[in-house]
Amino acid sequence: MPPRTVLFRAATAAAVLALGTTLLAASPQATSAVAAEPAPVTDYCQGQCDDILPPGENGNATLVEILGNKTVGTHPAHSDDQLDRYNGLVAGYSGLTDQKLTDFFNDASFGVPADQVESVTSPRDDVTITRDKASGVPHIKGTTRYGTEFGAGYAAGQDRLWLMDLFRHIGRGELTSFAGGALANQGLEQQFWPQAPYTEADLEAQVEYIRTREGERGEQAMADAQAYVDGINAYRQKSKDGRYFPGEYVLTGKIDAITNIGEIQPFKLTDLISIASVVGGQFGGGGGGEVQAALSLLAAQQKYGVAEGTRIWESFRQREDPEAVLTVHDGTAFPYAGKPDQARGTALPDRGSVTAEPVIYDRTGSAGTGRKDPVKAPDRLKKAQGIYDDGVIPEGSLPGSGSGAQKRGMSNALLVSGKHTASGNPIAVFGPQTGYFAPQLMMLQELQGPGISARGVSFAGVGMYIQMGRGQDYAWSATSAAQDITDTYTVDLCEPDGSTPAKDSTHYLYRGTCTAMETLEHTNSWKPTVADSTAAGSYRMQARRTNYGIVTHRATVDGKPVAYTSLRSTYRHEADSIIGFQMLNDPSYVKDAASFQQAASNIDYAFNWFYADSRTAAYYNSGMNPVRPADIDPALPIRAERAYEWQGFDPAANTAAYTAFAEHPHSSGQDYYVSWNNRQAKGYAAAGFGLSAVHRGDLLDDRVAKLVEDGGVTRASLTRAMAEAALTDLRGEQLLPELLKVIRSKPVTDPGLNAAVQQLESWRAAGSQRRESSPGSHAYTHADAVRIMDAWWPKLVEAEFRPGLGDDLYEALTASLATDESPAASHGPSGAHSGSAFQYGWWGFADKDLRQVLGQPVKGPLGRTYCGNGDADSCREALLGALKQAVAEPATEVYPGDGTCKAGDQWCTDSIIHRALGGITQKAIHWQNRPTYQQVVEFPAHR
Q: Which 8-state DSSP code applies to residue 662?
């Protein structure tokens, strides 16, 4: 039996018998040498560490397995065996005890008991890969450092070969050439590649930078990465020769199913850089968007005048809202990226002059159209025909992708100090919220070898080290922080001959010299395959690079042509964070909270890092925070002049001076910590709109604060708090009381509206949850109230704000911050069926405005009161008018249906669907606003 493959049941085998024996996955020969036993490690968690990563560990499927899934719905072993446990917490959390945690989570102890061993593979004589029966997770143990990392790469090949191949091509801007020309593929590479365009020499330079500039750890990191790549390639070749490679290579025309002719291209170190650019850039970026911010500021100034318009705009921008939930809540301040009293160097565009920089040129065939031209597929493959017609990654599934996309932070964390737990040891429930895919972007693994001892998750393709997980006596996790590490510069355009420049000029002034922009480009072409029926086509992608970053827009400033560029501090440093991850995996380095914080400080991307051992809970915010000159406003475009550059800026390798360790928000031993991509600490300015008085972080903060107040917190009680928040509608819990107070200020005389208000009141009294009436009912307990709220919210926001703001300013502000991100708001930044919800929306704006109408105290109020122009009766009429429209809107319009759900199906519209990145699909599960990978940990002992 080949690794990651099991024989089909008889029904499945019969269904695909026509494939013939040449397509059956052959069994590879196990390595004959027996790996030496590595030194044992002590597991100080003593059975109190749990984790979960749906749908399952196995992310590879042979062609036979894919066709079995399409024909009779079977799944390869361990491809879906964590799905029901993850889903089961919806119904099971209310009665959860510590003893029942493993009903919904994996036992995350080190090692595999002898009676639980499913398979043992030794790809070299210095490493073994042991997989457990329960979940098939690889437990990799090496006697040498090289062998350990080789084993990690080999296991990654076993579990995620196709996914890794997919993402290296996304990172390189070659998705359509690799997987097909579906419109979603075209859109994805057109959005991702311009954010991190590189030449092969650029990627090689980043490898060399780590190897030569990061000391012994840098050399070791690149040696580890090379061993990891060697392991991937060993499995790649063995699976190809043995014919048990992922079937997607056949369906996309890479390998012939009968002759086995074709190739899976070897992996190389630079592929890891390209994968890291996708992962880090999307989950660990921060800032940017200054051009859109400038447009909304101009709209405010146009309506109210410069001074008043700026004041109004700042009240919506809410850089440091005093009412926002904070992770470090003890009052400690960490000033960064705030608003200067008198900004200098700001360069706002002339009204109406901004145009986006084109990316696509020389279209041919189906480019931009998605026209289909299906191939004549063999009968045996017809069940899998067109699996990628909508793209390998459906539009909007990844952060920063899709129509109207904006980067979204994800993940949450709940930690309680030992002072407030039943055991006296800290407890943590935390994990990253990275969307839902089949297979997942991450994979579970355990690594044990010289200098490495950890279990947890790694993003596929960069899994040399555990990125979030547990060590021998500590655990750690992260949430996206999104602090401002990206600035927009305004470069003056010029012509080398001294003539008058135009907006499309390709030269710019750099420190007084007219300098040519560097042109980066990719030409991609595709043709129809069994998997993707998109007709043949091609185009050229182009990006212009300057010393101040990538050109994103053209405009005029004071009548003169300029280009706006985006400069991210981690550009050209996509994989430098490997040093911090290496430290986190090293038991000789991380011994306590302080050493953990030092390790986390070596991670360059913008993340909030959390830690728990038997003694301390701690926090550190990582990121390459550039040191800006005094009085620079990072929220708006900055003139590209030396006086306004980052301190110590050198464009050759994009290096600068960065804020010191102590200037990053950090804490140790606070009573509790929560994070759901909320503000970090006092003084640490928000990099974008939306971190206001109401935030989804409040769903955690209120619950954990109550647990701490009561004392005796357990793993189960903290998990229950997380699970309850995961099913709660933020609008119902935080906004509905104020809305109802305005509406109930007088009797509601319309019987239909009064009935609707009563339904909303009952829902609020019951906890504002979006939860099934009983397991498997696929109907919410308060279905009508939820439908009313879903229909009402966008209408009430518009009724509340558009009249006062006016069309232009309202639309400019909604372009900076969407009004809604409920689970049903498929138009929102996170797309449909993605789980993550209630991060971006006008919750804080509405909260402050309604409290201003009600005459309640408001810290950091909006510049004006908008609902009813501040008149309570007029506000009430506006809200009731919007409610009347909402009540009349049929469910088929509130929930219009899609390729998975029928129109009007509320539960299905909310449901989580693991987006198929390969040929295996998964069933829909109940909505939860919850980390994709999650740990529940409590260490009773320490080294």
A: G
- Cis previous bond, 55, omega within 30: yes
Could you give the CA distance from residue 525 to residue 540 in angstroms, rounded to a whole number? Answer: 9
Mean pLDDT of the region 391-397: 76
**Alpha-helix runs per DSSP H in 689-750:** 697-710, 715-726, 730, 736-743
Residue 826 has pLDDT above 70, yes or no: no
pLDDT of residue 284: 79
Residue 493: strand, helix, or coil: strand
Residue 785 neighbours by CB under 8 Å, 6+ apart? 732, 759, 760, 762, 763
Per the CB < 8 A criterion, the answer to whether 410 and 675 are in contact is no
Tokens of 664: 């990053």
Q: Which residues contact 13 (CB under 8 A, 6 or more apart)?
A: 7
Pairing between β-strand 682-684 and β-strand 333-336 as defined by DSSP bridges: parallel
d(C-alpha 598, C-alpha 606), whole Å: 15
Please tell me whether residue 216 adopts helix, strand or coil conformation.
helix
Encode pLDDT of 861-915 as tens digits. Answer: 999 999 999 999 999 999 999 999 999 999 999 999 888 999 999 999 999 999 9
Contact 688, 702 (CB under 8 A): no
Tokens 């980067």 sit on residue: 407
CB 205 within 8 Å of CB 211:
no
Pairing of strands 468-470, 915-916: unpaired
Closest CA to 74 of 287, 311, 321, 383: 383
Mean per-residue pLDDT of the chain: 93
For residue 298, how many other CB atoms are within 10 A of its CB?
22
Helices (H) and strands (E) in the chain, counts: 25, 30
Q: How far is CA 55 from CA 62, 871, 921, in A?
A: 18, 51, 10
929: nearest Cα among 440, 435, 282: 435
Q: Which of 135, 205, 162 is nearest to 654 (CA)?
A: 205
The C-alpha atoms of residue 3 and residue 507 are separated, in whole angstroms, by 55
- Tokens representing 866 are 């908008």
